[in-house]
Amino acid sequence: MYGGWRYHHPMTDAAIVSAESRLLIDGTFRDAADGATFGTHNPATGELLADVARAGREDVDAAVAAARGAFEGAWARTSPAKRARALNRLAQLLDERADELAILESRNNGKPRWQAVAEIKTAVATLELFAGAAQHLYGRSHVVNPSVLAYTLREPVGVCAAIIPWNYPLMMAAWKLAPALAAGNTVVLKPASATPLTALALGGLGLEAGIPAGVLNVVPGPGAEVGEALAGHPGVDKVAFTGETATGRRIAAVAADTLKRVSLELGGKSPNVVFADADLDAAMVGSLWAIYYSAGQSCEARSRLLVQDEAYERFAAAFTEKAAALRIGDPLADDTQVGSLISRAHASRVLGYVESAVDEGAELLTGGPVDGSLPDGLDAEAFVRPTVIGGVSNEMRIAQEEIFGPVVTIQRFGDEADAVRWANDVRYGLAATVWTGDGARGHRVAQRIRSGAVGINTPFVAFPGIPFGGFKESGYGREQALEALDLYTETKAVLVGTGPKAINPLGV
Ligand code: NAD
Q1: Is a pLDDT exceeding 90 seen at residue 18?
Q2: What is the pTM (predicted TM-score) of this model?
Q3: Which pLDDT tens digit goes with each residue over 22-36?
């Protein structure tokens, strides 16, 4: 398959997958122009996985030039059917290798392997969705008057920089590549420095799938250098970014100089509203998933539980007990429910929030640092126990800032108006969940919460085919559905004279 280093499963010592660690530019894997590399690690163990080529300015220029060449060369004019075939082949290759790629993802990110499998399957579905959509990218036609027929064309924007975070490395890459390539754009993908490996593997699979050289380039490297160079690059037409709100703001500013198209999928502080009339058992298990999946390192993590007075005591006690019982451990083990965080530094930042909450007068109901019960070989300092913080009020820092870890705050509310007010009282607006036995109330509250997605009696807020994106400081643009094609196309109007006579308004 694609060359590079091999790594070994710690338990079996058997080679599992060979993965690429060099830059992918113009259809070939190569070292950085200046030979620079950086280490990428398994955060759960601290083990060095690979030395990865570190792109610099020269490599960014080369990747953008390759993408421009491929765009103007043929890709933009390839038939939609051909682009769809390539995307479907990529989907199939990804599906066939989902298990081995999930191990790579789990080892580079620290998330449970079974979660990585589920995310790779979602990436497959996303590629298939946009392979189909490529063939339905229609314009409109309009008879302006008897002498003018107009129609519109949906044309690709050009060279797209896709800058993605570390929390769902392969899935986030697919969310951006699939609509971009379907619409005939070419891409320079910059994975997060912490998790470059599956993005590089995806680039290799793209070549295997017949995606032409230069159409998909992958350049790992530091955000402030490589990401920012892409965001400001005169050869880039559009930046698609997923990451923190502060980074998104910076990217929008840098991209403004050349008036690039920008779409931003940013942070969240999503509410999870439990009314007393809900099926409280269903609300509890759903709410556990909604915060502790991916160890809470999820943009749509429902990190603020709002529970109605009458149900509060019972719900908070049962939720806390279940959270404390979740199995933390080896991300490769099948029964692990919560893996490591992305790094020691991030775990310590998350624990800092827990400390600050207690300092502000909130109550730690369960969670905090791990207590030495982890299997040998795991780095306890990269893990955080599922944490529940009670006695929280909305103005506290813990209720306002994105923590991005396995930490949920739990607050009580009196009536529906309070619930809606507090749900909306943050600068973010990505997702929300409402649990209620009253159907009308579910829809009513869904309409009043200002976020890009609302689940009623389900913790799920993202599926291929359903638009995903933010209100407020959670960003702009929608991914995962047909709306995404608007982000990757320009509309061109073509006007045609159809009258029998010359058009001669000057009467000459
Ligand atoms: P981050 O903003 O630190 O980094 C994201 C990417 O941007 C990385 O590739 C990074 O190298 C790059 N980057 C950093 N500084 C840059 C700069 N100045 N210019 C250009 N690129 C730069 O985010 P993260 O820590 O990797 O990811 C976590 C964040 O992502 C959270 O805030 C989370 O909510 C958000 N997120 C949002 C969504 C969504 O769909 N809304 C999905 C997943 C994650």
Answers
A1: no
A2: 0.96
A3: 999 999 999 999 999
CB-CB contact of 369 with 385 (8 Å):
yes
- Catalytic member of 265, 300, 381, 473: 265
Task: Assign a CATH topology to domain 271-456.
Answer: Aldehyde Dehydrogenase; Chain A, domain 2 (3.40.309)
pLDDT at 291: 98
- Average pLDDT score over residue span 364-390: 95
Closest C-alpha residue for ligand 1 atom 10 = 223
> Which residue's C-alpha comes closest to atom 30 of ligand 1?
243
Contact criterion met (CB below 8 Å) for 168 and 102: no
Give domain limits for the chain.
5-265, 271-456
Kindly tell me the sign of the dihedral angle through the C-alpha atoms of 79, 80, 83, 85: negative
Domain boundaries 5-265, CATH class: alpha beta
E strand or H helix at 372: none
For ligand 1, the distance from its centroid to the CA atom of residue 247, given in whole angstroms, is 6
Q: What pLDDT, in 10s, does the model give residues 204-244?
A: 999 999 999 999 999 999 999 999 999 999 999 999 999 99
Let me know if 299 is a catalytic residue.
yes
Above 80 in pLDDT, residue 508? Answer: yes
Residues at CB less than 6 angstroms from ligand 1: 163-167, 190, 192-193, 223-224, 227-228, 231, 242-244, 247, 250-251, 265-268, 299, 402, 404, 430, 470, 474-475
Burial of 145 by CB count in 10 Å (0-12 exposed, 13-18 middle, 19+ buried)? exposed
Q: pLDDT tens for residues 268-285?
A: 999 999 999 999 999 999
Determine the Cα–Cα distance for residues 327 and 342; give it in Å rounded to an integer: 18
Residue ID of nearest Cα to ligand 1 atom 22: 223
Distance 276 CA to ligand 1 centre (A): 36
Average pLDDT over residues 73-79: 91
Distance 358 CA to ligand 1 centre (A): 28
Closest C-alpha residue for ligand 1 atom 43 = 299
Whose CA is closest to 185, among 78, 48, 271? 78
